[in-house]
User: Fold these one by one.
Assistant:
Number 1:
Amino acid sequence: MHCPFCRHSDSRVIDSRASEDGTSIRRRRQCPECGRRFTTAESAMLAVVKRGGAVEPFSRAKVISGVRRACQGRPVAESDLSLLAQRVEDTVRASGAAEVPSMEVGLAILGPLRELDEVAYLRFASVYRSFDTLDDFDAEIALLRAEREPTGREPDPVAAKPPHQT
């Protein structure tokens, strides 16, 4: 680590602390050349490998902007989008890999988005999974409905009433 004051190529760590959210470490350093102190923040880098092979750092802001488009006009709060992005990052980091394919990031978005708003989920899935026909939408909607229905079907209360006697 170069000293930001004199550009000396070495520094000594005086103190280390985990950040509040536990994803980075703050280190207090001192330059042996000029004696001045400075603080650094270190975090494990998570990279996303795009379909074309390009590699870029993971960005919560990018996740939020993509999901925000799918949620346009829906009753979804900005705080919900931030929580979703945090869940996605936690899921992707849990894989333990330093580089993650963009496909994996998209899959990590779909689950929390489905819980947040089904319409936004369909919008996002239609782009992410490249829906080509109405049949693609029908199949996805059928899956959503099947997951929503209880496993033990209850009788229809209207059909279960006895016929009216006169």
Number 2:
Amino acid sequence: MQDLLAGKTAIVTGSTSGIGEAIAEAFAAQGAWVAIIGTNAERGEQVVKKIKESTHSDRAAFYSVDVSNTTAVEQIVKDIAALKGGIDILVNNAGITKDGLLMRMSENDWDAVIQTNLKSCFNWAKPVSRLMLKAKKGKIINVSSVVGLAGEAGQVNYASSKAGMIGFTKSLAKEIASRNIQVNCIAPGFIETRMTAVLPSERKEEVLKMIPLARMGTPAEVANAALFLASPLSDYITGQVLTVDGGMVM
């Protein structure tokens, strides 16, 4: 099926690389105009250029913003809504890791992960959902992690932020479902990104043993799940967590 998102306006945070970039590209390929959100202007403009070349149209624009800055996010949402006449899709994908055992974890490492991964959902979903409530339609997708479902030693901050995103998703889904707005969550497993590229080879071997499909996933495979949840194909699905993990967590 082509043009599943024709005429739609989407915001994808953390979309200058990895999973977010793949989601932005998938959305644009299906007809959406996409706001690329990040802090690295060079990578952001590269994604915009890539989308322009692949779609032969101006279907993307880069916005530099710290997703944990409430005031800055609210202004960006206003700017995009004014430019495009509304916002149809929001993907909260921005995320960082600052791993370490709890006994050695600094307060700054805890706060940074919670602010970027979890508070950003609040910062974006609040102003965007206001617009969607008025329009009586919309899709919000939060990119969590299987770590938020199963936990992982050395990642109490990351796991807490990702588990929080799942609770956020389910609660918001119940709050705004009556206005025809669907809120869902994707929980990727081990995906081939810059974040997993730094894993030691021994750790990668351990990981593969835990995955029934015996391989890591690709950003495009997560993007396919996001495309489904952003499209009319998922209009009767809300408050759900879709794992994209090769069967790692069942």
Number 3:
Amino acid sequence: MNREKLVEQIRTKRTFLCVGLDTDIKKIPQHLLTEASPLFAFNKAIIDATAPYCVAYKPNLAFYESLGVDGMAAFEQTVRYLKKFYPTHFIIADAKRGDIGNTSAMYARTFFEEYDIDSLTVAPYMGEDSVSPFLGYEDKWVILLALTSNKGSADFQLMADADGERLFERVLRVSQQWAGPDKMMYVVGATQGAMFKEIRRLAPEHFLLVPGVGAQGGSLQEVCRHGMIADCGLLVNSSRGIIYASKEADFAEAAAASARKLQEEMAIELEKAGI
């Protein structure tokens, strides 16, 4: 999916919500455990319930890989279901790949050819040659880790060199030499708050994937105040706050209500920004 189509979906649906499919076999409703594929049964119900309120889905590979072949089969079923029934939704594989060039090329082939997913989260630590194999696919996106929402992000990402440039700032500055805002997004955690000013100073046109709204306590309004641009430029992710809104038989309805609430807040932010 190219940028124009993604922005069109945001404008049309009045939302920039991404639903994170962090599907934990130990947290889904018990009655689903009798299904042939409990993870896919859960995902299907969540997708059907929340699709009107979001523009993207982000399955986190760790939750599927933890169950071996069965888990990866559920991931593949989820992707196929989205592509068949919700083809206008943007799909993010949250895998945080990044290795030497020939290995990254295989990761790129996996997600962009085999699964035909729109985007992949990538770690920049190993540099340009570890990221460039992902950038050779038309209408596919690299979502590069920049400033994350976890507590340990300060261990390295905020470290400054002798000139005062912090590591996340260098990542943003240097990586823009590899690809433009039609091919690369950045992960910036919602809990970083006013740091979005710095992000936008360095990357004024790129889309940002923003986890941490909801269960992690990030403020949607603060993210929008500092991070929104002329065509929105934001995909705000919520995972646990939506998919685990209820652990009972009404889990899908509860997820829909949670997603709808966020969509309504996002519609207000879009209106305020004149989008």
Number 4:
Amino acid sequence: MNTSLDKLNIGDEAIIVSLKTTILPKSMLTELLEMGFYPGAILKLERISKQLGNLICSIGNNQIGLRIEDSQHIEVLKK
């Protein structure tokens, strides 16, 4: 069952299904794609801080920080 990235638990791995291109700004979409956020990529949720409003996930050897608000627009399938 698909869900959004912000709904994963720490340590969960998931496959990116889609990015909501109608909601995320084009500049952010470009950055996400350049960092490896594309459909089929596998990511792992490393940390989440609701107080700071961000999360850290890894794709390959890269760790990427995202705002929780933006991660709500990344659809994933939990492995």
